[in-house]
Amino acid sequence: MPPRLLARLERELACGAGLVAILDYDGTLTPIVPSPQTAILAPSVRTTLERLATSDRARLAILSGRALADVRARVALDDVIYGGCHGLEIRGGGLAFRHPRVRTASLVRARRTLVAAAEAIPGSRVEFKGLAVSLHYRHVAPAWRRAVRELVTRVLRGVPGLTLIPGREVFDFVPRVRWGKGEAACWIAYRARRTLPRGGSVVLYAGDDATDEAAFAALKGRALTVRVGNGPSAANYRVRDVREMQVVLRRLAVALA
Ligand SMILES: [Mg+2]
After folding, report:
1. Is-above-0.85 flag for pTM?
2. What is the pLDDT of residues 61-70, one digit of tens each?
């Protein structure tokens, strides 16, 4: 249990503050599983999220590297702000954003190169996410991993204007527009706070990997940040795993009721 975090949140909420909760999906709300398709939200977690999303005193955002439609389908709740492709696209809860400088031509070119080359790499899979394109290599045998790295280098050299975000056995190619989870979280926090009743609010951000570290840094001094799991982190607080995160969310739902 993370008693310091709970004490802090419950103290703030007991004074009547509102809450903006911005949560990562994989590794934060669902355990990391062998295949990203099977990262299903547990019904009990959905119930807790629904309580947060429908509270007059809270706004809930889910921010993920997944495609917007994918994360929205997995959470499947109204009144939630969804951020897809590391925040390049945001929709829901009365907000709508699509990064204005994204040019899809580079992504289309990257996809074409990846699809053509991935056919020759057994186990690899290309996913087009709209504002990002991903090369999954979880099922690629070790002997073929070098071919994956070479393909990634070839795409970065051959297609201008892209940035690489390495994930868990996936490489995400995103437009180089200096916009990630950090910028997206600040964007969401600012707007969501304005829709809460007056009288102050607390922003909570929770995530488990390197892309979330950018958000912890961007929100420094402006939010309570929570790292899920091990590893060096700039977050203010840490919970051990997804289960502890669920405890925190349930306590928040109770405190807001
Ligand atoms: Mg994650």
Report:
1. yes
2. 999 999 999 9
